[in-house]
Every structure is written in structure tokens, then in C-alpha cells.
Amino acid sequence: MERMQGEGEVDHLERPSPLTDKERVMIQDSWAKVYQNCDDVGVAILVRLFVNFPTSKQYFSQFKHIEDPEELEQSSQLRNHARRVMNAINTLVESLDNTEKVASVLKLVGKAHALRHKVEPVYFKILSGVILEVLGEEFPEVVTPEVAAAWTKVLATVYCSITAIYEELGWPNVPTSTS
């Protein structure tokens, strides 16, 4: 069953503590193995998101009416978006020791999703859970409980950063035009 926050509401989470060097290495090492299967993992993540949280498809005119998971998997638009998501995560993971680069990437993602795509910020939280679930299922030998805890921490940091960007932009009262 899909559970959603109130519309337009921004969830306030306490920002996790910074990653330790050990956590950063665990994330980067596990991601290296995941990213070898970038396209398939990205598609699995988005299909799981859209099947378990069908309202998340509302932001994707190209495939929002596709109900069949196998048909979703074959959608070239979904595959392209999955690649963009995986590449953004890859940039973040590669830059975990560069807070300015991470902040820059998250600002771009946050602004685009708030202003251009009008995505409710709660979907970043939902996506984080789906990412953890899929990585744990697809890579159980890599995503051990300790590694999953590090991923939980980094994804919570991403979510907190994105919601802070939304707040800076005045979400939910963002302008309907970006011009």
C-alpha cells in the first residue's frame, strides 16, 4: 500500500552525521560493483518505484500510463531516465570526499525537480528506500548490513540536502513558470 505525506509538505529530518572514511570507502566499493550493471540496476530501481508507488509515474508523461512492469522495463524513455539517475548517483559517490561537488550536484537535481518537474520532495525519500531495497536484493554479498547502514546515511543526507534546496526555493509555492 502506498503511503504519502500531505501534499506540498516538506519532511524535516535531522541531517545525519558526516560519513566516516570507512563508510565512504564501503559506499564507493559497493557502488563500483553495482555500477558495472548500471543500466539493469537503474531500470530495476525505477520499475520497483513505479510498481510500488504508482503515483510517482505522474511526473513522466512518456510512460505514466504503462501499467505492466515488463512493458515499463522495455520503455526507452524509462531506460534513459534510469541511466541519468545512475549517473547522478555515480557522480555523488565519486565525489563523496568533495562536499562542494556533492552540494553542486544536489543543487542542480533539487532545482530541476522542484522548478521544472514539480516533483514532491517526498519522492526522493521514497526513491532512497527503493534504492536500498533493490541494492540489498540484487547485491546481497556486497550490500551487507554495515554497508546498507552507510548507504542509509548517505541517502538520508541526500534527502535532507534536496529538501533544504526545495525550502530555499519556497516549495510548495514555486512559480509555475521558470522564465
UniProtKB/TrEMBL annotation:
Listed PANTHER family: CYTOGLOBIN, CYTOGLOBIN-1-RELATED
Enzyme Commission number(s) of this protein: 1.15.1.1
Catalytic activity from the UniProt record: Fe(II)-heme b-[protein] + nitric oxide + O2 = Fe(III)-heme b-[protein] + nitrate; Fe(III)-heme b-[protein] + nitric oxide + H2O = Fe(II)-heme b-[protein] + nitrite + 2 H(+); H2O2 + AH2 = A + 2 H2O; 2 superoxide + 2 H(+) = H2O2 + O2
Keyword Iron: yes
Top-level EC class: oxidoreductase
Gene Ontology MF terms: heme binding; iron ion binding; oxygen binding; oxygen carrier activity; superoxide dismutase activity
Naturally occurring in which organism (per UniProt): Parambassis ranga (Indian glassy fish)
Protein keywords: Heme, Iron, Metal-binding, Oxygen transport, Transport
Protein name per the record: superoxide dismutase
Protein family according to the UniProt entry: Belongs to the globin family.
